[in-house]
Amino acid sequence: MKTVLTIFAIAILATCNEPSYSQVAIPAPALLPTKTFTGELGDGKMTYHYYEDSNTGNRIRHGAFKYSEYTAVDGAVYSVLFTGNYNHGFKDGSWKYLITRKDVLVDDGVYQTGSINLLLSYKSGMPNGVWSYSENNKLRKHKYTQGGWIWGAFEIVPSQSVIVNFKNGVVAGPFKMKTDYFDVSGQFDVKGLMTGKWSIIDVGISQIELDALNGVVSKFVKRNVSNGKVLFRSDYDAELLLIQTKISKLSRDGIDSLCQSNKLKIDTLPSSNMFDYKEFFDKRIFMHSETEGDKTIVVEDRGTFDRRNYGFYILVERIKQ
Q: Is the pLDDT of residue 12 over 80?
């Protein structure tokens, strides 16, 4: 039963790569005089252009968008600038996000100076193209001495960056991630499946060497990062490796038959099991749901959900007797 359920999950994964979304009725460009709205959003101000849907009367954002926020108190400065473009209600082209801080209190007596840069690329509301995140910070203390208040020296915080490609809402292409905790490089295929050679370093702890073909893992070695000692390795014999290669090319029915005859189990697992990068693109400060126009962001009564495909891998193993 587990095999059948897992294979069903793979089938769902395949069919979910190209989501279907309802479209707004789009009048001819010549009939699109737009109006401009400027108003508050959060602690800042936004400006966007729009026209009204002839059927519903709802505003359809179309054209340039800008959000800005600026706060300066007692020498601390916090600023935000988001810019992008809508195409008939959906985010389109490049969206840029810049957040800067100067001596902002982040802990007792500790102040942060730095910036976050986010670059997203869309095509008619779907993530499409390069998405990149980078963050650079430094910290310093403000303390009282006999001579009065003084600033300590800056302490540089390790930078964080993620570069990934999307195709119609599905992660696809080269991937690089370097953060406090992970240093990862590899490739996803057009279905969002890990493929080729991957290096996944859990900084200061372990390193994973992984090979995959169309998502099916054929090699998995986990080492102690300091002495190279193998902590775990996959035990795939020649026959199983051959079966794994076949599975990467079979239909659902073919996979089902092959698994039953060879007593195999298949698990389709999210890449976040080994490294999680979704959090960098989904930070609350980017206000994705409030700015609207991203088809992969779904707002429901029970919360806001991200429906993007951030990548999967497939494990094919023998059922232990």
A: no
> Which of these ranges, 44-48, 231-235, 236-240, 289-293, has the smallest mean pLDDT?
236-240
What's the rounded Cα separation, in Å, for the pair 317 and 243?
A: 10
User: Of 168, 187, 222, which residue is a domain's last?
Assistant: 168
Query: What number of CA atoms fall less than 13 Å from residue 98's CA on the CB side?
Result: 9
Average pLDDT, the chain: 88
* Cα–Cα distance list, 279 to 16, 27, 203, 285, 309 (Å): 21, 37, 18, 12, 13
Please report which residue ranges of 117-195 form alpha helices under DSSP H: none
Q: Are residues 186 and 50 in the same domain?
A: no
Q: Domain span at residue 301? A: 1-19+175-321
Identify the residue with better confidence: 238 or 178: 178
